[in-house]
# Entry
Amino acid sequence: MKINGELKTILEKFAESGWDVIGEPSRAYLDGKGDWEALTAAVKEADMTCGSCGCEYDPLYKRALQLLSGKPAKVSGRTSNDFCPQTMFLYGTYREDGAPNFGLFCWFSYCWDGGLGAMACIGGSTLTKDRINAAGVFSANLVNEPMLPLADYLGNTKGYDEDKMNVPVDVMRGAVLDVPVLSDSPVSFELEVTKTVPLDGSDVYICKVRNVLINEALADTDTSVEQRLRAALPASTTCATYFSNAPKAKGAWGEAMKAFKK
Ligand SMILES: Cc1cc2nc3c(=O)[nH]c(=O)nc-3n(C[C@H](O)[C@H](O)[C@H](O)COP(=O)(O)O)c2cc1C
# Structure
């Protein structure tokens, strides 16, 4: 039987503990001679006897029991946000010559600041950042699946390349702010920067959402949220890869908890 790495490390510690209760069953299990029930019973006994004495073994009994019951093993990986899918937005700004520029960004989330706000983190130095610093406003246009080829291009081409925006994109003006908006994006935020937080290698822009432009069909409340989300087709990204989403409603807020047993 294959023992996962995390459980193996814990059992090796138990085996070397010199305490009969866990030492022998752990060694037997590691050698492929023990059985799951005997080991689980031994670890339970150890946990009951001295699971809160304050020694380094206390959390290991509890963790071993979780792993023996089939919980997934964990390893410390490299620092990344892999497997945490994010939606993507094309930030629109006007260049100094008045032409629109768009760049692709995913370090974006929401906050509350007397009204709906947004937090956008931009690293390094980009045309988008320079134009946000100059104008204090930008648009954030949700990327959906049909827009992925364009979005990938705009995320991998520098705004300072003269030719970047020589591409077929339909642009309109924001309804409230002087920002360029992508006509094909299902949801566009018009954002005004209220605070800039400089970090080591990036800047976080705290913004007030001054307006949200959404496709008229998404405002049709006669259609379910699931149907409207399927029509909007937002794409996501993680592990440096783009993903489609096939949205399946899993319950409203406050409803999903009904399946949770205390
Ligand atoms: C999928 C994807 C997501 C990105 N997200 C961010 C981000 O959140 N923050 C950032 O600083 N750069 C991000 N970038 C890099 C910018 O898109 C890139 O610097 C681009 O050139 C910016 O456009 P600009 O040069 O016209 O300003 C991302 C790139 C890709 C491909």
User: Anything to note?
Assistant: The chain is about 30% helix and 25% strand. The first helix runs from residue 5 to 15.
